[in-house]
Amino acid sequence: MEESTKRRRLLAQRSPRTRSVLLATGVLVVAITPFAAARTGEVLREGLRNGTATRETQIISNIASTTATTGGYSTRQSNRSSSGGGAVYGCRSKAGGSAATPKPQNPCIRANNLSTGLAFEFHAANGDIGGLFSVGSGGDSKKPFTTNATGIATGLNADRVDGLDAAQVIAAARAKTGLDADTVDGKDSTDLLARFAQVTAAGVAGQTRGVPTGGVSDDAGAGDYSVVFSGNLGACALSATVTGTAPGIVTVTPTVAADNATTTVDVRTFDGAGGAPADRPFHLTANC
Fold first, then answer.
1. DSSP three-state, residue 275
2. What would the DSSP string read from start to end of 221-257?
3. SS in 3 state form for 121-188?
4. For the chain, which residues make up each domain, given as ranges?
5. Separation between Cα atoms, residue 224 and residue 184, nearest integer Å
């Protein structure tokens, strides 16, 4: 109480001008302080958790690209530790488009290039792995990403999975099922493709698949041919068509070898008018 009385006496003893200056200064401090806090917010505190913001913090710049080691970006975050990362961005955005969340939801990170350049770039300077996409617990129901771009991604090796090409993937799958690495249900890799033979009226083979060398022959008699396919075609559907403009008839009869190594198809061609045996060109296909 005594101290307060002394301050009042000291103020009363000062000149009217001095008292006016002090009062004006006090008014300015009281009036300006709320506006200053509203413009700048709280000071960023290093090494501590800062307060929860309720508005966007915008950093707007106008900085051109540069060939120097630094510069050209609005902000830069770097960690010189050999084990720590550069930045972590966490959010709690839910999946959008449902009845519970009808509004589109923002992703945790969005890089939006408003011009024609790249929207993002990831560069692993010395590592062997570029990065990782981890989606929940994983599995077939999870997708690493989606895209509306249907063009070919430059640099991706579409013929290799886990370091294996398509043929090696098939062989590995066969091995895991306990089958011979080159057979499925007694059929080798050639059996998995449709077999066919183009044959002239003279019994000369044209384009073929699954037919060994010398597998086409013109047997004795008109319209009598033999076509040998590798493998067992007992469970396959055979079809033959007479080629050319003249009408004709063709029949096929398969015979599987005792060792299941080959199947010989007896092909008979006939004249379309009277049904008499006649040499005619034909195409033969086995669908298994």
1. coil
2. STTEEEEEEES--TTSEEEEEE-SSS-EEEEEEEEE-
3. CCCCCCCCCCCCCCCCCCCCCCCCCCCCCCCCCCCCCCCCECCECHHHHHHHHHHHCCCCCCCECCEC
4. 2-31, 159-184, 195-287
5. 33
213: closest CA among 201, 202, 197, 232?
A: 197
Q: Count how many residues are written for the chain.
A: 288
**Which run of H or E residues covers position 4?**
helix 2-13
Identify the pLDDT of residue 29: 40
DSSP secondary structure of 69-124: SS-SSS------SSS--S------PPPPSSSS--SPPPPS-----SSSS-S-----
Rounded to the nearest 5 degrees, what angle is found at the Cα of 36, between the Cα atoms of 35 and 39?
85
Using the structure block, give the residue that is written with the tokens 């939801």: 105
Kindly report the backbone phi and psi dihedral angles of residue 45, in degrees, each rounded to the nearest multiple of 5, phi listed first.
Answer: -105, 120
pTM for the model = 0.44
Q: Which residues of 11-49 are buried (b: 16+ CB within 10 A; e: fewer)?
A: eeeeeeeeeeeeeeeeeeeeeeeeeeeeeeeeeeeeeee
| Whole-number pLDDT of residue 145 | 85
Write the single-letter amino acid at 71: G
Nearest to 242 by CA among 208, 268, 216, 222: 268
Residues in the chain with pLDDT values less than 70: 1-41, 97-102, 157-166, 171-193
3-state secondary structure (DSSP) of residue 5: helix
